[in-house]
Amino acid sequence: MYKKQTDVIRTQIERSQFLEHSTPLYLTSSFIFEDAEDMRASFSEEKERNIYSRFTNPNTSEFVEKICKMEGAEDGFAFATGMAAVFSTFAALLSSGDHIVSVQSVFGSTHTLFTKYFPKWNIETSYFKINEVDTIERLITPKTKILYAETPTNPAVDILDLELLGAIAKKHHLILIIDNCFATPYLQQPIKFGAHLVIHSATKLIDGQGRVLGGATVGRADLIREIYLFSRNTGPALSPFNAWVLSKSLETLAVRVDRHCENALRIAQFLENHDNVDGVKYPFLKSHPQYEIAKKQMKLGGSIVAFEVKGGIANGRRFLDALKLCSLSANLGDTRTIVTHPASTTHSKLSEEDRLEVNITDGLVRISVGLENVEDIINDLNQALS
C-alpha cells in the first residue's frame, strides 16, 4: 500500500500499444464500437467503456480517479468549471420544494444560485452565520435535504468545524456537501468527518498555474450516479485537454501547496505586525478565531491570507495601485501572488449589508500567496502599505 502522494503520481489510465510513460491526450469527441452488439451493450451500460466525451473520456477518468484517491471518495465526476460542479451537484439532487441549509459565507456566484435562480424552482435556502453554528438545527425543516458549507470560506478565510457538521447531517439524515477549494484534498479531506460529497474548483490550486478551468465533485457512489446522469444530459463536462493538464498538476500538488503554505504563514505574521493593517485572518495564526478547529482538520493553513487595510476603501485602493510585484486578478491558487479586493470584484454583486454579514468590509483584501521568494512578496506588500 503506497502513501497517498505516491499513489496520485502513479495512478494512470491503461497504456496504449505504444507503451508511453506519460499519459497521452485523448482529444476525441467520440469512440468507435466493434460491432452493433458492442454499441447496444455500451449504451445500455452493460459494458463500462467510453462512448462520448460528454459522458467520459480517458483523461477525465484519470483526473477523477486521482481526486477520489486523495479525498477518500467512492466515485466522482469532472466539470468544465467549479461553478458547473456546484450547480450540477445541487440540480441533480434537489427537487421542487426542497430546502438547503448553508453557511452564509459562500462564494458570490453560489449565493446568486441560492437567492436568484433556485427560488424559481421552489428551492429555498436558509443561512447560518459562521459564529452561530448552534442555530443550524433550528433551521432544519422536514423539507431540508442538503447541508452545505465552504471551509475555509471565500474570501474571509473563516473555518467551520467539519466534525460538527458531519454529526448534524448524520442526525438529521441530510446530505453534507463541502466546497474544499481553498484547502485542496492535500490539506483537508472532509469525507473523513462525515461529508457525503466534496466539490472543487480545479481552476485554483489544483491547476496551480492559472492555465485552465475545471471542477469536480467526488463522494458517495449513489449520489455521484445521480450527478453523472444529470451532467451526461446537460453537458457541463470537463474537456479532455483540461483534464490532462489538471491530472498532471495533481502530481505536483503536495510540493506546491507546501510552499504556498510556508509563504502564506510568513506573510500573515508580517502583516499581523504592520502598523497600517487593522487585522489579519489566516487559519494557522494563533489569533484566528477558529485556530484550534483549523489545526484539527487541516494539514497546513492554506495559501489565502485576508487582511484589513487601515483607512478603509480609499487606502485600500492606494495599496492595490502601489503594488509592483503582486498581480491584481480575481483568480487564486496561482504560482504568482495575486491580490484581490473582494467587495469590488468577486463579491460585488452582493449588497453592502450582505457583504458585511459575511465579514467582507470595504477595506478587506485577499492575498493568494504564490511561489515567489517570500522576501520579495513581503517587500512589495510593505512598500505598498507604507
Structure description:
With 386 residues, this protein is α/β, with parallel strands linked by helices. It has two domains: 4-250, Type I PLP-dependent aspartate aminotransferase-like (Major domain) (Aspartate Aminotransferase, domain 2); 253-385, Aspartate Aminotransferase, domain 1, CATH 3.90.1150.10. The protein contains 15 helices and twelve strands. It has helices at residues 4-10, 36-43, 58-71, 82-93, 108-117, 136-139, 162-172, 184-187, 221-234, 240-250, 253-272, 291-297, 312-322, 352-357, 374-385, and strands spanning 75-79, 99-103, 124-128, 144-150, 175-179, 197-201, 215-219, 277-281, 304-309, 327-328, 338-340, 364-368. Strands 1-7-6-5-4-2-3 form a seven-stranded mixed sheet, sandwiched between helices. Strand 5, helix 8 and strand 6 (197-201) form a beta-alpha-beta unit. Helix 3 packs parallel to helix 10 and helix 13 packs across helix 15.
How many helices? 15
Strand content: 15-25%
Largest sheet: 7 strands, mixed
Instruction: Name the CATH class of the largest domain.
Output: Alpha Beta
| Domains, number | 2
* Backbone structural class: alpha/beta
Q: How much helicity do the residues have?
A: 25-40%
Reading side by side through the largest sheet, how are the strands ordered?
Answer: 1-7-6-5-4-2-3
CATH architecture of the largest domain, please?
A: 3-Layer(aba) Sandwich
**Cα Rg:** 21 Å
CA-based shape? globular
Count of distinct strands: 12
End-to-end gap: 53 Å
Question: Uncertain segments of ≥5 residues (pLDDT<50)?
Answer: none
Instruction: Please name the fourth-level CATH homologous superfamily of the largest domain.
Output: Type I PLP-dependent aspartate aminotransferase-like (Major domain)
Strand and helix order: HHHEHEHEHEHEHEEHHHEHEHEEHEH
- Give the mean pLDDT: 95
As for the CATH topology of the largest domain, it is Aspartate Aminotransferase, domain 2
